[in-house]
Amino acid sequence: MKKILALLMVLCLVLSMAACGDNKDGSKKIKVGMVTDVGGVNDKSFNQTSWEGLQALAKEDSSFEVKYLESKTDADYQTNINTFIDEKYDLIICVGYMLASATMEAAKANPNQKFAIIDDSTCADLPNVACLMFAQEQASYLVGLVAGSVTKSKTVGYVQGMVSDTMNLFGIGFISGVLAACPDATVLQFNANKFDDIAGGQTAAKNMITKGADVIYHAAGGTGIGVIQACDEEGIWAIGVDTDQASLAPDHVITSAMKRVDVASQDIAKAVKNGTFKAGIHTYDLSNSGVDLAPTRTHIPADVLTKVQQAMEDIKNGKLKVPTTVAECPQFTLK
Amino acid sequence: MKKKSFMEILTSNRFLQILLSILLGFLVGAIFLIIMGISVGDAYGKLVSSVTSVKGISYVIVYATAYIMTGLSVAFSFKTGVFNIGAEGQFVMGSMGAAVVGILFKDLPSAVLIPLCFLAAMIAGAVWGIIVGFLKTKWGINEVLAMIMFNWIAFYLSNFIAGIPAIHNDGSAEATKTISDNARTLLSPELRTKLDLAPTANWGILVGIAAMLIVWYIIEKTTLGYELKAVGANRFAAEYGGIGVNKSILTALAISGALAGLGGALQVMGMGGRISIFTGQEGYGFAGIVVALIGCSNPFGVLAAGLFYGALIYGGSKLTLVGAPTQLTSVIIGTVVFFIAISIIFERFKGGLRSRKNIALRKEMESLDKAKSPEENNKEEAVK
Q1: Residue of A nearest to B279 (CA)
Q2: Does A18 sit within 8 Å of B199, measured CB to CB?
Q3: Which of B6, B274, B320 faces A67 most closely, judged by CB atoms?
Q4: Measuring CA to CA, which residue among A308, A326, A333 is closest to residue A144?
Q5: Which of A184, B68, B155, B182 is most buried per CB count within 10 Å?
Q6: Contact A75/B272, CB-based, under 8 Å?
Q7: Residues 54-83 of A with CB under 8 A from B
Q8: SS3 (DSSP) at A158
Q9: B280 and A196 in contact by Cβ < 8 A?
Q10: Residue B274 CA, distance from chain mean position
Q11: C-alpha to C-alpha distance for A271 and A277, rounded to whole angstroms
Q12: Regarding the domain with residue range A136-258+301-328, which homologous superfamily does it belong to in the CATH classification?
């Protein structure tokens, strides 16, 4: 009995000692906190990309201190945002539109706290929130062109993680791109309704391959990893999303539709440091390299690449407008 | 009188076993931290400092409320010989029930709306439990398998309901609308700022404590509780004694489901305010299994275990600020469960040794063992 008591006392002592020792350096640092959505920081998608961007920023400029908090459930968003507020962070970056209402509530309650939110524009009216928006349909259009150009069976596949206005932009852009390159192509579409179902992604991709698809694009987070695996096994082309996913299957990922969440996060953090933080909508598209084709381009035939680069120029100078609504792209059928 | 050895005290005192398991959990966590090259003091310091301020404590209570309810639900089912692994689904159904009422009847005054939400949640949870109970009593379908599947049915049903236009969020978020302010159990903003409490501080914990007392009363003081326990101890003996086994199982699952459902209501009315379209199970029900295990299936133990679990989850969420992974809490909780499970096995092993001295005693132990086995087996399954 005494032994246990003694052990407990020691633990208490250690813990209470540990609880002291805080605040090491007094120099003024720009503290940037990032709150992930439920995907977590290793989602191989926008949470991870923006965290990597912030880490890179902190590495090159030591006046930045960057930290992240992971959300496990929908209710954690508010808690995590408030943790950063309590710890007096200079900027809180909320990753993903799921954090919109928690961000709005916190931004209203703390008007002097600067926020940035990725992929949401509903907070644009608040004087302390920067909304970082991406033209995902533009990047999807470009990979659609690639898919439409390299398909031999004139059948391509598309797996989406969830049906919503934001997510649909991926599909609408992609299908428009495919049809621009190959007007009589069939686009097989599937809504996985899940972002973390690797096995489900594999099944969906294999079904499409059975039906003749020889290029498959996904906008489905973790589910998409399954799509890429299936394409790798069956030896057909896969197209990645958000980040350069070539590393997942170097021989079969032909390209990826990149969303430079890292650049956007770095930009807004720098703006806070320089005192040029601006609330409202910041749009990232082809013209400011906010979206792009992945840098790995070895598998893309030269003529296709020329075609894609031409389309990039056309989009940048306004000659080509990528559809953003289902009405402009009736072939998009996911509901 | 002979002085008892350390081992003897340990095998006889459940409370000490659990305390030691928790201690070992932190120790193993520390080993992992050292392997990863992270300061143990920093990580555990953050864990402790974030839950010891007034604000921290209010957060812990907010987080713990849901875990206490699912813990009570699972503990109640343990006592009655069924293993409610379906608390996850019942929790989801309960929170959706409360949310639907809280969204559709948004103009009702709080005094009517809040009880109505609680009722809807309890009914939704209870129904989810009863369906499985019915499958079990009518056709003998294993309740564990049925419940695991019902968790997924609840998951997708919740996603479906959240997608209905009348319920779905007006903005871009993939979630339900936020429930009416009249249905929220939040403390008043003045009180929250005055005491420097969490923005989500609510009085749901009082409902949790009331539920705990009711569960304790049912189990310990009523005929119903006696019958349920008898069925849990030995189904056949209970039936021989004239207790309606099927009715007892249905009642147990209904109450257990209602508790988990109420937990869902407290979560959405206090902390969440809305339900997102799930991309993965949120795990409140599964956490309830751990809480029930740490709390020895005793209602008061569950309250303490729920607070402990809530503190780990809330404190753990801040670990990344000191460079430690949040998964550390999973390591700690996993280890605690592991050692508690081991201590159960160890007890049985000790029993076997002692009985070898006396054959008569051994026989008695064996019959006791048999009588206890459904409950024990369930506990071991919970660990898996």
Answers
A1: A194
A2: no
A3: B320
A4: A308
A5: B68
A6: yes
A7: 67-70, 72-76, 78-80, 82-83
A8: strand
A9: yes
A10: 21
A11: 5
A12: Response regulator (3.40.50.2300)
Cβ distance of B326 and A73 shorter than 8 Å? no
**Predicted local distance difference test score (pLDDT) of residue B204:** 93
d(CA B216, CA B295): 13
Q: Which residues of B touch A1 (CB under 8 A)?
A: 6, 9
Which of B48, B199, B321 is closest, CB to CB, to A78? B199
Q: A75 and B272 in contact (C-beta within 8 Å)?
A: yes
pLDDT at B331 over 60: yes
* Reported ipTM: 0.79
B199:A82 CB<8 A: yes
Q: What residues are paired with A219 via a beta bridge?
A: A160
Residue B380 pLDDT: 47
Helices (H), chain B: 6-12, 14-36, 40-49, 54-79, 87-104, 110-139, 143-163, 189-194, 204-221, 223-233, 235-240, 245-266, 284-294, 299-317, 327-356, 359-383
CB-side neighbour CA atoms (13 Å) of B105: 19
Centroid of chain to Cα B270: 17
Locate the chain A residue with the closest alpha carbon to B169. Answer: A101
Domains of chain B, by residue range, sit at 37-378
Q: pTM of the predicted model, to two decimals?
A: 0.80
A28 to chain B nearest CA, in Å? 17
Residues 6+ apart with CB under 8 A from A274: none
Least confident of A11-20, B31-40, B266-275, B344-353: A11-20
Question: Are A4 and B20 a contacting pair at CB < 8 A?
Answer: yes
**Most B-contacting residue of A101, A160, A193 (CB-CB within 10 A), to test interface:** A101
Local confidence band at B355 (pLDDT 50, 70, 90 cut-offs): very low
Q: Give the pLDDT confidence score for residue B269 in this predicted structure.
A: 94
Q: Closest residue of B to A10, CA-based?
A: B23
The topology (CATH level 3) of B37-378 is: ABC transporter involved in vitamin B12 uptake, BtuC (1.10.3470)
Q: Which of A74, A86, A99, A225 to mutate to test the interface with B (most CBs of B within 10 A)?
A: A74
CA B90 to CA B258: how far, in whole Å? 8
Tokens of B71: 């813990």
Handedness of CA A48, A53, A54, A55 (dihedral sign): positive
Residues whose CB falls within 8 Å of the CB of residue A210, separated by 6 or more in sequence, listed in order = none
User: Fold for domain A28-134+261-288?
Assistant: Rossmann fold (3.40.50)
pLDDT below 70 — which residues of chain A? Answer: 1-27
Q: What is the pLDDT of residue A191?
A: 92
Where along chain A do its domains lie? 28-134+261-288, 136-258+301-328
Rg (CA), chain B: 22
CA A177, chain centre distance (Å): 21
**Amino acid type, B71:** G
Total CB pairs under 8 A between chain A and B: 119
